[in-house]
Specification:
heterodimer; A: 270 residues; alpha/beta; 5-stranded parallel sheet; B: Rossmann fold; 7-stranded mixed sheet; 5-stranded mixed sheet; 10 helices
Amino acid sequence: MKIDTAYLAKNIRLLVLNMVYKAKASHVGSCFSIADIVAVLYGKILNVKPSDPKWINRDRFILSKGHSAAAIYAALALRGFISKDDLKSYGESGSLLMTHVSHKIKGVEFSTGSLGHGLPFATGKAMAAKKNKKLWKTFVILSDGELDEGSNWEAFMFAAHHKLDNLVAVIDYNKLQSLDSVENTLGIEPLTDKLEAFGWAVKEVDGHDLADLEKQLEAAPWITEKPSVLIAHTTKGKGVSFMQNKVEWHYKSPNPEQFDLSVKEIENSL
Amino acid sequence: MRNAFIHELVALAEKNKNIVLIVGDLGFSVIEPFVERFPDRFINAGVAEQNMMGLAAGMASEGCHVFVYSIANFPTFRCAEQIRNDVDYHKLPVTVVAVGGGMGYGNLGYSHHAIQDYALIRSMPNMLIAAPGDPFEVRACMKYLINNPQPSYLRLGKAGEPNMNLEIPTIFPGKWNKIGKKTSMEVKRKAILSTGATLEIAVNLSKQSEFSEYEVFSMPLWGQSYKVLQKELAVNFDEIITIEDHLLDGGFGSWMMESLSFHSLANLIKPRALSSDVCGMVGTQKSLNEFGGLLNIIS
């Protein structure tokens, strides 16, 4: 199936915008930050079957920064795991679509919300695959602020020690946390050096360069017997100029005027 | 109890290839039989309990029944959120195995006293608590857990506990297990009901003249889902002394009182739990149980 990742990314953003606007929800900036990564994963990389979400040989995908759920729900709708109508209940009372990613939705492996849970869980899946001699891979998206959580570093150590080269992590490095920049909160540089010192194969990429994202993710594992981590340099709020690199769009939801402006800007992109 | 656990685990793992044992760099002189027999199904996750529990959940999501073994405080409070979110919420077959429940490691100090663990675990709706009172009950719990894989908490004592049951009992969650001869025709209207490693204390109490009217039961399997069963069992008695090596708040007696309060029967329960004065004390398990008020019960 030929999938245009640019088309996918643009429509992920539009669906996200509609969801968060209708639900008056937060985290639109976080969703836009990973929209291109998600588009490449669901459009080109993940070996999955929308008609059979539990297909035994599927690649596993974990969203550790669960607050970006809307981007995943949008991708799942665009790929046919769920319907676009399902998205209308996002965040509403009684809905299965909670605003942190939910395993009760077809195609979602694991619910998150508390940060620092996705990588250890993904490591367990990768470990199980190795033990059972399965060829599928496990992909996980983490945020940069999430790296404050010590549990991630426990998992970084464990995955490298056990040579889990079937595990691929993508760090959404938009340099903003919920109150301030990463640098002003708990600086994580030199990030590449740290991750290499923990025993991972590390690459950096422009997290909005669809072709390069695909090239790097397609080639993983980059070093045999090492887990791979792609540091994706991203822009929080990417795609809507007045949201970009603005820390407040971690929490704010667009008002009607901002919604209309955002829709126009995204629709007119590309 | 811990030896009964590992021998039962090895025996059951012979038949069930999905069983995996993960330890948090603990288990010296206990886990070796499993490690030697199934080296490919054993992982030492190191001193990193959050990753250990998330890892266990991830493996369980791929068909493994994962037993996560450590000293009681470590695989519980240190990774409570991983148990809550990753294991319990996702209903994954991870059995948290805590050795040294209660004051089993009394002289190691407060950090190693497991006297609030029931409170933590029983607040999670899908967790089944398995708190055996002797080695026979350990084997019974293990058989139940393997046959019914689910989020679960196996709370063990240490080693050397005598058997109070006459044989491996048949147990079910929320059901009371009568200790002693099953053929007694005498119907007693008072009960001592124990969970976990206090079973020996309960039996010894029943041998004292002032408790000769009491029948001893254990409840090795319990949790939120089984409160509804308690009324029909409790109404057969005029008084039920619950006993546990745990603080009263959030413990087993508290669970029984909550179970019966819906039926205005909570006053049947006379809970006997460790006094919070024991927090911070150092001593043997027996001395701390005594200081905490378990050995000198006056009803």
